[in-house]
Amino acid sequence: MSSADVVIPQGMQGLSKFDHNETLAHFAEFEGYLHLAQQSYTRNNLRAAAIYASMAAQVAALRHAGFFVSPSLERLLINIGRRVTDNSNYRRKSLPISRLDNVLHICTEVVEVGGHTKMLCRWMEADDTRTHSLALTRHRRPISNSVTAAVHKAGGKIFHLDRNIGGPLQWAKRLRQLARNYDVIVLHVYGDDIIPMIAFAEPEKFPPLILLNHADHMFWLGANITDLTINLRDAAQDISIFRRGIESRRNIVVPTIVSPSVRVLDRGKAKTALGIDPDSIVLFSAARSVKYRTLAGVTYADTHIELLNSHQNAVLLVLGADDPEDWRRAKLAVGGRIKSLPAVPDPRPYFEAADIYVDSFPFVSSTSMMEAGGYGLPLVTRFYGSHEARIVAINHPGLLASALCAKNDAEYLEILSQLIVDTEFRDRTGQMALDNITRFHLPPNWFSFLDAALNLAKELPPLDNSKFLQSNDMETPFFGEPDCLLYDLFGFDIKAQDLVIPYLGLLPIRQRMTHWAALYSAGHFYSRKHSVRCLMPDWMSRLVDYSRLRLRGAL
Question: What residues does 380 pair with on adjacent strands?
């Protein structure tokens, strides 16, 4: 397929700069690391094979190369896992236990701010009839108090796999030992995390394995080891089935769990506390800065200039956008009534002050919309694409029926204008959002979706990936939607050297020196100290980090 064959949906014309040669370049970069992994495997260097496989997966996850799953990469990792043996005779029971009470959640890391960590904590806190523990594959900083408190309250433990000397092969074996002590395993991992792939290469030797599809718009590993995929919306379920090749019976939709929104201040007092005129109408949005990406020179702030100048009593607060240079013109144009702010761990004061919630663009922020709906705020989103590209739109349970979705800028501004001037419409739309959030996303109703997923995981036979291992399916780049839009929405502008440097310490010494020399001669290290550190084995640099954290009292 050529770039001429790519059809950009009506409404996105002029926004996309899609170039299929860029996708092919990313695909070639992926294949380069995959080849190194396969070459190392044939030479029985499983350690190097695993690290190069992770590098290939990182390229696919951070530089979208036109596919969402890699059969050849997953086959390689499963084969590595089957050669990393242990002495256990564990087999999943032919008659499943009546209830899955002990849950092991596996994360690559847990960041302090973000919907991913929030859902993990809320799940553990709400599901208080089960015990929940957490295993981290490569978390190298202090754990936030919210995560620690949630695990302890759930009666579980936190395990740091990478605090032991060794590398992914040893950590995968350790993960196996842990997993067999639990009734069910839930993966919340990053798309390039190879440790679960190696650990659970033979699914029948472990408890039921569930993958939470939290990065549904990106490449990830695990399609051919997991018994059940939990999708958070129907567009993600479609991609899981049709683009990742996961059986329909092994796919289910479970809404994102959110916490009940409990007001501390009424709206007027909340506005005053933030230094905002209590008589103003506050439009509020909250998301990571990448979700407010500028397209075709038009910033998120620019879109609201006309609206705010028509409604002098309206203010737009954007939490998480930081202070983009290219927003400053719009801020001046409306007399400073657009305020972009850094992310904060507790955004509650802003939700309490808001009158209207406006979604991020060009990529939605569903978790923030659910939180806003819990406060009874009217929800406004926009999507200018086609049905095939709806993975970048709101189509989540509860939100699809209650959010006001604009199909172009004019419709978007018209909706916001009506909400600003029509109090009754604003209240009615907000109540509809609250009702749907309660129905789908809040306990106790949410438990019916969770229980259905756990019961299905319990009843399904273990995934048999033997036929997959014998197949010769290959990943190929696709140039249609949604793939052709993802680069514009997310940028994928990570530098090539930054894809390699984090893996240097994990590579065997020979491969480490080869890559280190190339990076050094190209001037890719930040300093001499950085270059020396990157020569160290990963376990040594980790011990240095942990020692510093202990001295600071952070561990």
Answer: 358, 404
List the one residue out of 98, 91, 90 whose CA is nearest residue 458.
98
The total of other beta-carbon atoms located within 10 Å of residue 233's CB is 23
Angstrom CA distances, 123 to 126, 129, 250, stand at: 5, 11, 21
Where do we find the tokens 């406004």?
Answer: 380
Chain centroid to CA 497: 23
Across the strands, what pairs with 381?
A: 405
Residue 190 · residue 77 · CB < 8 Å: no
| Distances from the Cα of 236 to the Cα of 114, 214, 247, 540, angstroms | 19, 9, 14, 40
Return the DSSP state at 340.
E
Residue-wise DSSP of 241-267: HHTS---GGGEEE-PPP------SS-H
**209-213 and 228-231 beta bridge pairing:** parallel
pTM: 0.89
> CA–CA distance from 399 to each of 239, 264, 438 (Å)?
19, 25, 11
Query: 224: which DSSP letter?
Result: T
CB 458 within 8 A of CB 208: yes
Residue 105 — φ and ψ, nearest 5°?
A: -90, 135
Integer Cα distance of 313 and 551 in angstroms: 52
Place of tokens 């939470």: 212
Q: State how far the Cα of 182 lies from the Cα of 434, in Å rounded to an integer.
A: 36
**Pairing mode, if any, of strands 209-213 and 184-187?**
parallel
Q: Which two tokens mark 221?
A: 């590993």
As to burial, measured by CB atoms within 10 angstroms (0-12 exposed, 13-18 middle, 19+ buried), residue 521 is exposed
CA 137 to chain centroid: 16
Helix, strand, coil percent content, the chain, rounded in steps of 5: 50, 10, 40
> Which residues on neighbouring strands pair with residue 104, listed in sequence order?
133, 185
Q: What is the pLDDT along the chain (555 residues), one digit of tens a residue?
A: 333 333 333 334 344 455 678 888 889 999 999 999 999 999 999 999 999 999 999 999 988 899 999 999 999 999 999 999 988 888 887 666 678 999 999 999 998 766 788 899 999 999 999 999 999 999 878 888 999 999 999 999 999 998 877 899 999 999 999 999 999 999 999 999 999 999 999 999 999 999 999 999 999 999 999 999 999 999 999 999 999 999 999 999 999 999 888 899 999 999 999 999 999 999 999 998 989 988 889 999 999 999 999 999 999 999 999 999 999 999 999 999 999 999 988 899 999 999 999 999 988 999 899 999 999 999 999 998 888 889 989 999 999 889 999 999 999 999 999 999 999 999 999 999 999 999 999 999 999 999 999 999 999 999 999 999 999 999 999 988 898 888 766 655 677 777 889 899 999 999 999 999 999 999 999 899 899 988 988 888 877 777 777 777 666
